[in-house]
Amino acid sequence: MTRIHSIETIVFDLPTIRPHKLAMATVTAQSLILVRIRDENGNEGLGEASVIPRYGAETIEAIQVVINQYLAPPLIGMDTSLIRRVLAMMDATVKGNSYAKAAVEMACVDLAARALGVPASTLLGGAVHDRLPVLLVLSAGKADEDIALAQEMLDKRLHNRFLVKLGKDDPRDDVARAIAVKNALGGDVRVHADANQGWDEASATWAIERLQDGGIAVVEQPLPTAEIDGMRRLTERFTIPIMADEAIDTVQSALAFASVRAADAFSIKVTKHGGLLRTRDVASVAEAAGLTLFGGTMLESSVGTAAYAQVFSTVQSLDWGCQLFGPLLFADTITEHQPVYRDFHLEVPHGPGFGMRIDEDKLSHYRRDSASADHMTTA
Ligand code: MUC
Ligand code: MG
User: Fold this and answer.
1) How high is the mean pLDDT of the chain?
2) How far is the CA of 273 from the centre of ligand 2 (A)?
């Protein structure tokens, strides 16, 4: 039994090696929060939440307040291995706040798995994958830059599948860019498109028809989150798979989408679903309904990436691979060891727990309250 003795939260900002342009924000430094849970012997479990501005409902500062003021006090003394009990306590304490709860649950799972000397996946039923195909999100917003980066990644054998971000510009420009990327990379290279809710149903119908003809593999979240009927109509109309991302967060929303087949596939993410166990629950809903799965990201550092990889490794139907490229986008790291990317795959860390340890010098450099906080901007 491992009882919680202390909980520490640290906000930090990691600079990126290039601007990452999304419909809702351009990220040049990503805001993250690290949760460090310790037992009375000083053993530590790590959790993390990463926040893209205006992507979800939470902010990094609010997550810290929720954990420090509301979740931490009742957590003291709890047994980290009773993870469902920890989740129930957090749900009884605050509604929603899935990112905050996910970061806390991650740290509990890491600590409990470390105490047993096993990878975190063991507590989730065990890994079925040792490595995960990993795609890169191309987000320069310009076809020639996206193509050049994709070619570089193919040459380095880091990524052989890519995702273009759409939904910000005129749908005609979006479609032309996606198809230019697909044509330049050729038939063997899988290209996803993610509109991040940027279209109405008429624009989506127009665009998806052309993306389908142009050989794009899958279209993610074409419509705003609430439009379950529209998503169902698009799913029924097209043979190209339609993936739900922002629209499915709780297990209940996943069930609502699966039961009327308002998507062919789900993008799953640990912070969106409120923890590793709930990510498994959402995956089970998809599997039961015959949907395929994609392991998503919120731009985690090596800590969150290792945690996400542990749960994704337990998902049999991860047909679309994962997009855990966060550590490759950042100019630096806060851990001693780094996730290994090789031959177009992310290797699932062997643990114990998530297999990550904090590099204290790096963390003190990037933490927000450090003296040298000159890297704290996210556009
Ligand atoms: C998504 O799939 O909408 C986070 C990073 C990124 O490139 O996209 C988002 C997630
Ligand atoms: Mg998405």
Assistant:
1) 95
2) 14
